[in-house]
Design a protein that fits this description.
This protein is of the alpha+beta class. It has 6 helices and 9 strands; from the N terminus they run ββααββαβαβαβββα. It has a single domain, classed as 3-Layer(aba) Sandwich (Aminopeptidase), CATH 3.40.630.30. Helices cover 31% and strands 32% of the residues. Strands 7-8-6-5-4-3-2-1-9 form a 9-stranded mixed beta sheet, sandwiched between helices. α1 crosses α2. InterPro entries: Acyl_CoA_acyltransferase, GNAT_dom, Ribosomal_N-acetyltransferase.
């Protein structure tokens, strides 16, 4: 689409492709959400959307993308890529920016279908959006956060070079839980081999870059 060039934006890595989803991609992503994202005894998300029944998880997964597209502005955007591995949509890697033209800071979040976890996909897809942020958009910082009882997410952050950036208290399932904030600066980031950005230039004004 000439007036919405984001649909042509793609990130590629040695094993993955990240892209804004088409309708078929959203349908497959909704299947991943319905199948399950984590052990029901755990809750890695501040908003417990995965506590809903499978059909509601599927529907809300589709709706969140429509909301992000409809409210996108250069000063406040959320870019959620579907992650494709071996031809299958396996999860989502999101990158958000607010007043990016001034702050030059992005935040990330992600999830992967339960049966596709444990393959290093989470690290590789986060590295892909870091490459977009630092090499493509000229970001100065990338931030993330995870509850302190979510060691897998925090391990990905450490692996990619993030530093601890303080604690926050958040409500989760009606209880107060500590969340660890982390931060990575462009100076501490190492550009990965085999990572490429496609179709970015027409999208730059939409990112405020």
């Amino acid at each position: 689409m000439r007036h919405w060039p984001l649909f042509a934006l793609r990130l590629t890595t040695p094993r993955l492709e990240l892209r804004l989803p088409g309708l078929d991609d959203l349908d497959e992503l909704a299947d991943r959400a319905a199948e399950g994202v984590h052990d029901p005894a755990e809750m890695p998300f501040g908003v417990p959307w995965t506590d809903a029944p499978p059909h509601e998880r599927a529907r809300s997964t589709v709706q969140v993308h429509f909301r992000q597209w409809g409210t996108w502005s250069p000063g406040d955007w959320s870019c959620s890529f579907v992650t494709v591995w071996e031809g299958r949509v396996v999860g989502v890697q999101e990158m958000r920016g607010r007043d990016f033209a001034v702050t030059r800071e992005v935040a990330t979040g992600s999830w992967i279908g339960l049966r596709f976890q444990g393959r290093g996909i989470g690290t590789e897809m986060r590295a892909a959006v870091l490459h977009l942020a630092f090499a493509g958009l000229g970001a100065r910082y990338a931030t993330s956060s995870a509850f302190v009882d979510n060691p897998r997410s925090l391990a990905i952050s450490r692996r990619l070079g993030y530093r601890e950036d303080g604690l926050a208290v958040e409500k989760r399932r009606g209880q107060a839980v500590l969340q660890q904030r982390v931060r990575l600066s462009r100076d501490e980031w190492t550009a990965p081999d085999g990572f490429e950005i496609h179709g970015l230039e027409p999208c730059l004004p939409l990112f405020g870059a």
